[in-house]
Amino acid sequence: MNLTRLLQDINYACIQGDINREVSGIAYDSRKVSCGTVFVCISGAIADGHVFAADAARKGAVVIIAEKSVDVPDNVTVIKVKDSRAALARLSAAYFGHPAKELKTIGITGTKGKTTATYMVRSMLEASGIKTGLIGTIETIIGDEHIPSANTTPESYVVQETFRKMADAGCKCVVMEVSSQGLMLHRTSGFTFDYGIFTNLEPDHIGPAEHKDLDDYIHCKSLLFRQCRHGIFNADDSHLEEILAGHTCDIETYGFSDKADIRASNVQLLEKKGILGVTYHLDGLINMDVEIDIPGKFSVYNSMTAIAICRHFGVSNDTIIKSLAQIRVKGRVELLDISPKFTVMIDYAHNAMSLESLLTTLKEYNPARLVCLFGCGGNRSRERRFEMGEVSSRLADFTVVTSDNPRNEEPQAIIDDIVTGVRRANGRYITIPDRAEAIRYVIENALEGDVIVLAGKGHEYYQEIKGKKYHMDERELAADVARDGNFIK
Fold this sequence. Notes:
The chain has 489 residues and is α/β, with parallel strands linked by helices. It is built from 15 helices and 24 strands. Helices cover 31% and strands 25% of the residues.
């Protein structure tokens, strides 16, 4: 491909060399450079790609895209841009032939609910005969291919490469989680979403390696609505006006508010055959009764999100109901088949907002005891530990503080921080640093009627310690305990 075609949508200055030259590919990791490559220098949190420009040239890069000065041989073309990440997104879109134009693109952002909503949307669209790809926290799905995810929103090159694979595989639509980090780092730049969705917002991902403060977090979330044609918003969220600031899209809302375009009412708790669920009624732009086998008000919001989207694709009410009855999302209020006498579930709740929402919901079902097992990740905000400890102590009948992904911190130091929060309330608690032992403890000591929540890791199948990931799947750990204790039905 000729370099001039890749540069069509980019403001740039050619500092050195000729732009009328053929290139064989794009790389933003110098280890993946080959002969004829365009190397994009990314200024990352850990490493600065500009440092590797000369190395990339030695490996065969013929074009360097950079924000800063680089020292490379005269036969290498150097293109200077204001923002290398934004340039990478536009270069990638052009390189893969602008595949977003061949798909209906749906982007969902918010603090929580993104993962479940994306799976709901895909289920409904697929059931309507619309082949739909998915990009999210757990995995990327292209037809029958399931690819585990490293990031909620991949790098822009990967997004465009994935869009191309989806379009070539016959997908007509893609639904994806759009993180605040992804928006901040231009991972979803280079195209316009057909639909952008806002689920909710509470303080999260604030710290040295993420967002500097809440205002920055809100601002980054709002960027999606300057990059989509039609916006669908949770009318009940307290940050809605801030999210709408600067929007360029059409507006549609859902929620419990009388002012919402799609309104939920008459919410009823549902219990059947060990399933905790909820029913409710929708009116406004769509009129129907809804039943879903996932508990709580957050499930009402998640399903409303999906219904509000799929309405635009002509999905029938019957298809919506059938799809919701079948939806199960790994690590999102995921029930484990352990015993008929008590309930064990896995959930990804890993901040105070998510944990409070989950525990408050489960208390409404009046369990004999609500038991919450969780830890907090290392190299993340310490404030999150205090907040989660206090939430669990206040809402759960019994808290088991354990390890999550300690990363480069000492597990006991993290546990000590959590306990500081736990002691702000009056709940009973115990600390068991080894997560496998902690899971064994809560199951072996379960009482009839208990609801036990294993919170924080959700879909993850590993534990990250000192830079290494060790296999650890909570489903396997719970099943082992169940077999040893003869708990299985």
